[in-house]
Known about the structure:
The structure holds two protein chains of two kinds.
Chain A: H1 2-22, H2 30-36, H3 89-103, H4 106-119, H5 124-136, H6 140-153, H7 158-170
Helix pairs in contact in A: 3-4, 4-5, 5-6, 6-7
Chain B: H1 14-52, E1 60-63, E2 68-69, H2 77-86, E3 90-91, E4 100-104, E5 107-111, E6 115-117, E7 120-122, E8 126-132, E9 135-141, E10 151-152, E11 157-161, E12 167-169, H3 179-189, H4 201-214, H5 224-233, H6 240-256, H7 259-269, E13 271-275, E14 278-281, H8 283-291, H9 300-307, H10 322-338, H11 344-352, H12 369-379, H13 385-390, E15 394-397, H14 401-421, E16 431-438, E17 444-448, H15 460-463, E18 466-467, H16 473-482, E19 491-494, E20 499-500, E21 506-507, E22 518-521, H17 522-527, H18 531-541, H19 543-553, E23 571-572, H20 574-585, E24 589-590, E25 596-600, E26 606-609, E27 615-616, H21 620-635, E28 653-658, E29 664-670, E30 674-681, H22 696-706, E31 721-725, E32 742-746, H23 760-776
Helix pairs in contact in B: 1-6, 3-9, 3-10, 5-6, 5-7, 8-9, 9-10, 10-11, 14-22, 16-18, 16-19, 16-21
Amino acid sequence: MILRISWILSFSILASCATYSTGRGIPAPIESRDSTGAIEQQPANTSREELPGNAPIQRNEFPPTQNPPARSPAIVTPAPSEPAAPASAASTLLAGVDAAIAEGDLERAAALSERALRINPRDALFWYRLASVRAQQGRASEAEGFARRALSYSSGDPALTGQINALLRDL
Amino acid sequence: MDKSKPETDQHGQQAPRKRRCWPLIKRLSLAFVAVVVLWCVWIDFEVRRDFEALQWALPARLYARPVELYAGATISQAQLSDYLDTLGYRETTQVEGPGEYQRSPSRIRLWSRGFDFWDGAEPSLSLNVEFDGRQVRALWGDNNTGDLALVRLEPAEIAQINPNTGEDRVPVRLSDVPQELVDAVIAVEDQRFFSHFGVDPIGIGRAFVANLKAGSIVQGGSTLTQQLVKNLYLSRQQTLRRKVEEALMALALELHFSKEEILEAYMNEVFLGQQGNRAIHGFALAAEYYFSRPLSELSLAELATLAGLPRGASYYNPRRYPERATQRRDIVLGRMLSQGYITAQQNTTATREPLKVASSAPSRGRTYPAFLELVRDNLARDYDREALQTEGLRIFTTLDLRVQSLIDANLEASVKSVERASANGSDGHLEAAVVISDAITGEVRGLAGGRQRGYAGFNRALNARRPIGSLVKPAIYLAALESRQYSLASVLADRPVSIPLSGSQVWSPTNYDDKLYGDVYLFDALERSMNLATVDLGMQLGIDSVARMLEKLGYNGNIPLYPSLLLGAIDMSPIEVAQLYQTLASNGFRSPLRAVEAVTTAQGERLERYGIETVQVSDPESMYLLEYALQGVFKRGTAKSVTGRMEDSLPLAGKTGTTNDLRDSWFAGYGDDLVGVVWLGYDDNRDTGLTGATGALRVWSELMSDLNIKPRLTLPPSKIVWQDIAPQAVQRASDRDCRTPMSLPFMPGRLPDSAVSCEDDESILQSIFDRVRGLGR
């Protein structure tokens, strides 16, 4: 079992490296998302558990052990010692999406996700956010379309893939 | 008078008669007074009711997709400064306020205006953009704003849907009108506005004297209130009754409403110019119309120019008669000076300012007629014509100005170049239609309904339904791959067939080049668009399954269930074709093509949102295999001719289409970001002398390389395996030649047939087999 998990993990890391090395033209803001601290500075974190299957997401932090943290609530710790790198467009929008969800303005959350997808249409996270929003609105068939789309771009991120699959099971 | 009358009544009835007459006059005059009073009351009632409910019919306004700035955004310095020019920004050497920008090598500093978008407000910001070729390298604000990750500029207004009255205006609150403009208008039109009660006897007297002195009418005695009443409620006739009515209404208005309310209405109502059949009303719209900037950004001289217009908007038209307009402006400034609104210094500076009118008014509604029709189609379900014309709706569209301008600028020349090259000697007008959409979201980015820029006639992109020819083939091949009965290395027969139709008819299709290719691989048959091999495949699959696939890909119309469907005997409009290829481009996820993102009220309240929708209609493995062949169309197939020109963008995927007698030339193709469909043909269905490859493909590749279409970087799904096959398709393993094998992707459940497989483990077995068989012969 452990062998199998580590095999899958190493494969997905390889796959994710392959994804990023081929990225042309589009910046890969995903990579800097966690290091910027931009998300953590947002007060929207409190709302993250409200969505079904929408646990906080740790991008590109692959679990070093077989204990995946992705589906447990993350403990958010700001990193004051590090100089603040400029936030990326995607992290800014992600913060906006989560803030809108917190305020209960789901249409705005969907709109902001779509805005992010206009900037980077292959960002699985925002497809997943759209799916979560629609699921919360009870629009299951739309949610499924978005979740499947998210899945088609999430091969480099096993944690996210797991969450998307969980959402699909709940629909 | 009565006494002088001769007494005719013999019975002494003089006195009663007198008594009878008096009351009659009294009653008549009483009745007259009553009528006048009632009239006044009625006018008063009417004015109060109408003014309270004063609501102008406001045209719907359409906005293009806004430019988003962030590190990595694809936009060059030249493109951004073009965009800012479109928005009416002013290039300066020192940015001091909203609507200004400053250029230096590889940088632009700008102060955005801010905008209330349908999904939230974008603040007005001062920011710096640094470029690296075609991209934004970095983005930062000033001391107040600090770092910026993402800034959305205002959207360009691309069209409006005008009310039947032809009136257009941008209503504005008095508090948003610059004080200098209020001062200028009062100084020149009605200097006692704040002290009179609707009519101004002193003003009339002064005007009378001035006119007497001059010998002609040089001054009007009408107050602003009277002018407003006249414009709002009365006809243009100059009768006495109308004059009295005007005065009464003005009095009534002043009685019930404050000076500020009246002034605000005046500022929005006043007629200030005419553009075609569109009447420019109100100062806010006039600022945009004459100076391409909002009121708040205009200088004293510019505001004075506008304040001079109510006297005669066409006579003092600053665009047509700059000298008159300048003179009038200086008169306005002179009045402001004499009435103490401005200092001598301000007056001198303003009169020295040259009249800087925007060269041409943004002509709305005519620039992008083809796209506008698509917007109307999209909105038809939710909004009727009346709503669009009167409610001041704000419609946020998906139009990408960069894409649309490029189509507009290049299509005509591009079509002309292939037209000349055609063998067709006729002097007809080869027509064109183009649809460009986002490969992932299905948002329509640009549209052309004819080859001419801004063509407003028959919209071929939406309404010209023509046979699609070989563009149908990907649907057949996808149906085959999805069935798992076929692989890219399945061997098809490119041989003559005769298919009996109903009655005694027989269908005997041919290849475009009349060649026969014999045994061919499935991928090769698609890449080189072989008709006979495709018919072979399609007849095995059944017409039904092809029709079902077309529906899954997004076609909603009727599908004729004849074998000729396999060669594209089905009429579609370019936008319907774009929908099919959008589904292919997004790897089997169908998202309806959209031209509208959202609709808000004039105040910015969200009414309707048209978000992304998506449904998975095919599995990733089949899509990947299909795309392998559609990329092969560029690498080895019918689109190979343009690979030299498009080197930077490859790999791309697409398909050529040619119909019987070369009547239609099609190309549909996509990269990672965009899907494009080009159709060329004659309206009367004549022979174009062009195939898909010599016509539409060339136009497509010119447009797409100018748009820097991004290469396809589709990663193989994890289940896909690569296997070697013999380069030549054969039916029997004994004919197989594995000396220079080629590698193709396969689904694990559908590996190549042993007859063509060159995989080692298998081929060793096979070769032993072959040898045994060979010995037996």
